[in-house]
Design brief:
single chain, mainly alpha, disordered C terminus
Length: 303
């Protein structure tokens, strides 16, 4: 066994279980807030989804994210399919609520990136990658808000879903709803703060103490690496990338890898297992079938 791996396993074996459990609690709390956030957005457009169904949809989407390339791409489709099965709401309406969530979530991401840039500059580093990411996110959000409805309308007509378009739930209308926008941004910001704390407590579990703000940089880079990873769930790429970030932040290689192991054990291992149980027991097979096939030809009745 390579020395770096055996060293990490030794560090992991001495991990403080209290901080590991706290990391797990933070993760579950984040998923719960995501579920509440979607319920808030859905109710605004007239869709009632129970908390347990929203929570289950998120867990199922996490599993799909963890077995498909690039984080979130496949999982969002799974979440939409799950909600369609439970409510019968047109998928285009559900898709708009998910797109709106992503736009709102960009606010804390951009804020975290700004904090990370400031932190890196103060430390004397040159965060070129984060600066590029910062401007790409800002540009992406601006383009999304301005052109999403048009792109969706063209795609819906091409695919034969034009009848399901509903201008009352367009992205522009949702973004202009100030109270909805603020509530969604606040809930998204809470989740991102919890994400930073989760990395922090995972580090504390293996005895690594660093300023919490430094984990803002790690959290942003975690997102970037996950989005760019071409392997299912980012396996290998995410671990390597996040370990390199932690080493750059001052952790020894063995401690950095042990910290990543705890994080991935929870966000990949635990979350995938629970997501699998949801798919098996909670209406997931229908959603999976819907996701894999052309939804109008599946023939099942939404419930």
């Amino acid at each position: 066994m390579p020395e770096w791996l055996s060293g990490s396993l030794q560090v992991l074996s001495r991990a403080d279980i209290r901080y590991v459990l706290l990391t797990l609690v933070l993760y579950i709390t984040s998923v719960s807030i995501y579920a509440v956030r979607w319920i808030v957005v859905l109710r605004k457009v007239g869709v009632k989804l129970r908390f347990r169904d929203s929570f289950a949809a998120y867990l199922a989407s996490i599993l799909v994210n963890n077995i498909t390339p690039s984080a979130r791409a496949g999982g969002e489709l799974m979440r939409i399919a799950y909600a369609y099965i439970k409510t019968g709401t047109p998928m285009i309406k559900l898709l708009n609520t998910v797109a709106f969530e992503r736009i709102c979530e960009s606010v804390p991401v951009i804020s975290l990136a700004a904090i990370a840039i400031f932190e890196a500059l103060v430390a004397g580093d040159k965060p070129i990658g984060i600066i590029v990411e910062f401007f790409l996110i800002v540009a992406g959000v601006a383009i999304g808000v301005k052109y999403w409805d048009k792109i969706l309308a063209i795609a819906a007509r091409k695919l034969g879903f034009g009848d399901n378009l509903d201008s009352s739930v367009s992205i522009k209308r949702l973004v202009k709803d100030r109270s909805l926008f603020i509530v969604t941004v606040v809930l998204s910001s809470i989740v991102w703060i919890l994400d930073v704390l989760r990395l922090y407590t995972a580090a504390l579990a293996v005895g690594w103490e660093a300023p919490p703000l430094r984990f803002a940089l790690a959290s942003v880079m975690y997102l970037v690496v996950g989005l760019l990873a071409v392997t299912p769930g980012g396996i290998g790429i995410v671990e390597g990338g996040l370990t390199a970030v932690f080493i750059a932040l001052g952790a020894s290689p063995s401690v950095a890898l042990a910290t990543v192991m705890i994080e991935r054990l929870i966000s990949y291992g635990f979350a995938s297992l629970i997501g699998l149980l949801v798919i098996i027991a909670g209406g997931g097979p229908q959603a999976w079938t819907l996701l894999r096939s052309r939804w109008r030809q599946t023939g099942f009745t939404p419930r």
